[in-house]
Amino acid sequence: MIDRKYPNTRFRRLRRNSKLINLVSENTLNCDDLIQPIFIKEKFNGSESIETMPEIKRFSIDSSLKEIEDIIKSGVNTVAIFPVIDPDKKDDQGSEAIKSDNFISSTIRKIKEEFPDIILIADVALDPYTTHGHDGIIKNDYVDNDATIEVLVKQSLVLANAGADIIAPSDMMDGRIKSIRSALEKAEFKDTILLSYAAKYNSKFYGPFRDAVDSASNLGKSSKETYQMNINNRNEAMHEVAMDISEGADIVMVKPAMPYLDVIQSIKQKFMIPTFAYQVSGEYSMIKLAVNNGWLDKDVMLESLVSIKRSGADAILTYAAKEISKEILKR
Ligand code: PBG
Asked: What is the pLDDT of residues 237-253, one digit of tens each?
């Protein structure tokens, strides 16, 4: 016979129906948690698909404005823009990155003119601009830290001047947050927010992104292992974050996201500062491809984002932001 007094605790009491389940839900993914990355291509009209990223496109400036309108309607308030630069403008120094009237700065101006309330994140790194596809300046076959920082500072000032709300160094040079922060302060950009890609791993999950910004062929077989983090390390991520906070970062980011949930959790618990996660191109494409093939249910995308939020991320950059936000608004 079953002991009628057993069990005292029945977890299933709180799972009887979806209203009860939602009432005791510990985390909820909101539209505000999502950031949409967008690829914007120079000398180009209309839009084109990206073979390795299902449903994601490269846009011209004009078509990106329509896209952003759609993103805002979906409930997402923040976009991260990535330029696809005219190959003729690339050189080994990435010099186009520091010209005040370059493609990305005119793009930022147009977006902010049309949508003043959107929160606009602009990436700081040289890889869209270099013929070798690296994020920095090469000296003696090695990406030189301090020479790169000098250029990144100038690039940051160009982006801040154009009106970017958030400047996001994704290059992983040591000490760049300090230099960029002090240059911004000196130039009176006191409210420009610094989002540091603090724990950015040397990951193979970036492959589709490099196709999207057309840097894959430039980079060739060369690796970013001398500046991006070793995938085996977690303590090092804590040191990276501690340093970036002390140098003036307002927000820190972990990238990729789902393979590094332990890192997100440790950072959030220890530092208690705004912590973002980047569900990168490879994570997105893996899920999308399986869903589009009918191998996985489409809600796997939402589940992946919930797992990232549950680990402690305050916001998530994801190529699925618009789509998931629409779903959230419907529920
Ligand atoms: C470049 C940069 C990369 C990503 C964002 N900024 C790629 C890289 O480091 O090679 C990757 C994003 C993604 O895979 O979605 N500084």
From this structure: 999 999 999 999 999 99
SS (H, E, C) 263-312: HHHHHHHHHCCCEEEEECHHHHHHHHHHHHCCCCCCHHHHHHHHHHHHCC
Determine the CATH number of domain 30-330: 3.20.20.70
67 Cβ below 6 A of ligand 1: no
Catalytic residue among 41, 90, 255, 268: 255
Q: Is 125 in the pocket of ligand 1 (CB under 6 A)?
A: yes
For the chain, the residue count is 331
pLDDT digits (tens, 9 = 90+) for 110-143: 999 999 999 999 999 999 999 999 999 999 999 9
Q: Is 135 in the pocket of ligand 1 (CB under 6 A)?
A: yes
pLDDT of 6 higher than 80: no
Which candidate, 319, 170, 325, places its Cα nearest to that of 251?
170
Tokens 């069990």 locate to: 7
CA–CA gap between residue 97 and residue 158 (Å, rounded): 8
Is 41 labeled as catalytic in the residue annotation?
no
> What pLDDT is recorded for position 1?
60
